[in-house]
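Researcher: Please translate sequence to structure tokens.
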Amino acid sequence: MSQTPVLAANAHLPRLPERKDWGIGVVGAGFIVRDCHLVAYADAGFPVVGITSRTRSTAEEVARLRGVPRVFDSVEEMLDGPEVGIVDLAVPPQDQPEMIRRVVAHPRKPRGILAQKPLAMTIEEARDLVALCESAGIVLQVNQNMRYDHSVRALKALIDGGALGDPVLATIDMRAIPHWMPWAEGLRSLSTFIMSIHHLDTMRYWLGNPSRVLASTRPDPRTKFPHSDGINLYILEYDHGARGCGWDDVWTGPAREGGGAEIGIRWRFEGTRGTAIGTIGWPGWPDRMPSTIDYSTVDDGQWHRPRWPEAWFPDAFAGPMAGLMIALETGTEPDISGRDNLGTIALCEAVLTAATEHRAVVPAV
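Model: Translation complete:
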């Protein structure tokens, strides 16, 4: 009986750039910057040279807390000096397209932009932003940071190495209650473009672009402002035979109304030669809760359970920035480029259309 090769010790970790001194200028000072971006960048040795936010006092508070040397009144002021090589955008999705346009319009353009997901709230605007950055010679990376969750990355290594055989079925089952930010109210989509986008992009990372999408959505009883896509159910069909599906349940039963709580995110991957199951630690935030992976193959029939101390929040947030820096130092396409991310935006659009029109939809990049 042959021995199943174990995962490499660093399979769950991002590749880091050799050059790290690009100079990061951050736009935004919310909790995701304060507690994830800046913490992960400091741990990885990525220098943040300045920060700006709509409210200067908030930017000053975050700068003091995280040791950012300068606070600017605007992104234009931040770009006036020579220090900033990368602009890290962490603003609400309805504000991001205009912010990208302001960065591109500045006489002193950065080498790269790390944009938050969703890149835009429509595929049409996302296409325009990608073309705009390409014409300006700015490398655009999208912060789809779940690709750098450690269990997601470990599974990708198993898939690429052939340990699990051909993909048959991949599932993500989320039963977790997000804290919707105030800016989420009034958007054309709630869960699809804010929460499900993580899982849809992960399916693309694992399986590639699907051929067809079926979906059903309904409002979340707990979320009081008007919305249509609170709870999302979707199936991804691939012409090569694989299927993917996600149950994104932000209700989880009356867990906040007096009922018992059973919160978590679980994933499962079945191939022709093996099975992997895992958990995503994000619902445990602000506690550091590492994700997990267990896998078994027909080679030895045993379950392998590697574990690590790193957690998605905050550690995985170094990954997309590392990918952008590697692209800049090597002159190559970044791993989550704006052009690649059009496939994820198209997938979000397909989920909304499939749920609204009750039919299978072909994603259109």
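Researcher: Any highlights?
Model: DSSP finds ten helices and 13 strands in the chain.
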